[in-house]
Amino acid sequence: MDLIKYHSDFIQYLESQDFKREPKNLYAPVNYILQLGGKRIRPILTLIATDIFSGDHKAALPAALAVETFHNFTLVHDDIMDDAPLRRGKQTVHEKWDINTGILSGDAMLILAYQYFENYKPTVFQQLAKLFSKTALEVCDGQQLDVDFETRNDVTIEEYIKMITLKTSVLVAAALKMGAIIAETDEEQANLIYNFGLNLGIAFQLQDDYLDTFGNPETFGKQVGGDIIENKKTFLYLKALEVANKEDKEKLKFFYKQKLEDNSTKIVEVSRVFQQNNIPEATQELIEHYTNKSFESLKPLNISDEAKKGLELFGNNLMNRNV
């Protein structure tokens, strides 16, 4: 598993695509968001899965770009819904252009993502398109739950895990299963790698939640405290409500009713409540739980021990990231 090779091959394939087409105001934002960088985790997972099952990761490049294009489409629209100013340390698409451009360019990205599957033979195309449609709809389900949670005061931790499973981890899981489909492995093996990705995706989102409050602004790439500003009922908030004393609970509820111009005090006070109630430690424990659960799916896989160790290393590195 040569992650540097996967990354460079993917970037080379991405740069070979023609997004400098007309109308410019539709495709320039597409090119902008895809060139902003990011971790490229999902497309790399597609390449990894194809490689470990067939030894030919380049066969998965079109599907990998489909996954990355779709993921970035969701980011463009999420940023509009969250009124987010930054993405990967740069202006979000709707800030750089405008909201209408962000909506339409995002729509175009969704359609472009499907077009990349046309590079595969009919049987593989059908399986990829079926999985992709299912996953795309689940991501929308998760996004709607996330929006619904903003106006609910009875969200449970179980419901939150379901929401992030749909909004985030199903795409991580699908990215891996697409690689298995391209390698034409059997359904049982494809489902095992899917389950690995599903639990890893939950751990990944929990790590993202943790970094949103306790990350380094210089490396995180997004506005630290963004979830607090938006009153997002993340695991950190829900766990704090579960374990905190009455005074801290009231403080959290008070701040999570506020939409302020200056959020600096809100971020400091909410972060302090989290720290006083050992929420960072509780979050890290849950991240470790889902990471270990993901590794359980690797044991029955018909791949080399070296490949299994490589996937575990990838998972552990993902959980120890600061970006």
Q: What does it look like?
A:
This protein has 323 residues and is an all-alpha fold. The chain contains 16 helices and 2 strands. It has one domain (3-319): Farnesyl Diphosphate Synthase (Orthogonal Bundle), CATH 1.10.600.10. The chain has helices at 3-15, 24-34, 41-54, 61-82, 93-96, 99-115, 122-149, 157-182, 187-214, 217-220, 226-229, 235-243, 246-255, 264-276, 279-296, 305-319, and strands at residues 86-87, 90-91. It has a two-stranded antiparallel sheet with strand order 1-2. α1 packs across α3 (41-54) and α7 (122-149) runs antiparallel to α8.
What's this, in brief?
The chain is mostly helical and 323 residues long. 73% of the residues lie in helices and 1% in strands.
Which helices and strands, and how do they pair?
Layout (H helix, E strand, L loop, with lengths): L2 H13 L8 H11 L6 H14 L6 H22 L3 E2 L2 E2 L1 H4 L2 H17 L6 H28 L7 H26 L4 H28 L2 H4 L5 H4 L5 H9 L2 H10 L8 H13 L2 H18 L8 H15 L4
Antiparallel strand pairs: 1-2
Number of helices: 16
What is the number of domains? 1
Proper CATH architecture: Orthogonal Bundle
Distance between the termini: 22 Å
What do the pLDDT scores average to? 93
Radius of gyration: 20 Å
Tell me roughly what share of residues is in helical segments.
over 70%
Shape: globular
DSSP E strands, number: 2
Strand adjacency order, main sheet:
1-2
Task: Provide keyphrases for this structure.
Farnesyl Diphosphate Synthase, mainly alpha, 73% helix, 323 residues, single chain, 2 strands
